Amino acid sequence: MRDFRKLDIWKNGIQIVKEIYKLSDKLPAQEKFGLRSQVTRAAVSIPSNIAEGCSRNSEIEFKRFLEIAIGSLFEVETQLIIAVELGFISKEGLKSAFDLLDKEAKMLNSLIRKIKNSQ
Predict the structure, then answer these.
(1) Which residues, other chains included, contact 116 with Cβ-Cβ below 8 Å and sequence gap of 6+?
(2) Residue 25 has what DSSP assignment?
(3) Separation CA 52–CA 8 (nearest Å)
(4) Which domain holds residue 36?
(5) Which residue in 20, 27, 77, 119 has its CB near the most CB atoms, within 10 A?
(6) How high is the pLDDT of residue 32?
(7) How far apart, in whole angstroms, are the C-alpha atoms of residue 45 and residue 25?
(8) Which of 16, 10, 109, 101 shows the shortest CA–CA distance to 51?
(9) Who contacts 61 (Cβ-Cβ below 8 Å, separation ≥6)?
(10) What CATH number does the domain containing 61 carry?
């Protein structure tokens, strides 16, 4: 079993959650149960799935949870794009979030590839 708290990929996921919660505060009140709820849940899912994958005994299972985490990451990115398209948030205000998401996607893809190549 891996200690997820020591993984940079998990730590970056936590930073994503913090950034998304800050950004979600900028969404209109009527989006509390819509886009805001969706984007924060997807963001929380990223480090949560990394942590859950660390509890698994096989590399195949761990890789599967990393794949779920990257799916959640793409959900967050899509939801932020929607927020921009709807005029809720400016594109310039998302640079930090997109940088964190890009870094996390690269780390996730790299670890997934490493696991695939070791099998």
Answers:
(1) 63
(2) T
(3) 15
(4) 4-118
(5) 20
(6) 86
(7) 19
(8) 10
(9) 53
(10) 1.20.1440.60
Q: How does DSSP assign 44-95, residue by residue?
A: HHHHHHHHHHHT-SSHHHHHHHHHHHHHHHHHHHHHHHHHHHTTSS-GGGGH
Averages of pLDDT over each 10 residues, the chain, 119 residues: 93 98 93 93 98 94 97 98 94 94 98 92
Q: Which residues of 67-86 are buried (b: 16+ CB within 10 A; e: fewer)?
A: ebbbebbebbbebbeebeee
pTM of the complete model: 0.94
Is residue 50 a contact partner of residue 73, using CB atoms and an 8 Å limit?
A: no
- Cβ–Cβ under 8 Å, residues 21 and 100: no
The count of structural domains within the chain is 1
Identity (one letter) of the amino acid at 28? P
- Distance (Å, rounded) from C-alpha 10 to C-alpha 48? 8
Length of the chain: 119
For tokens 């709807």, the residue is 86
pLDDT at 54 (0 to 100): 95
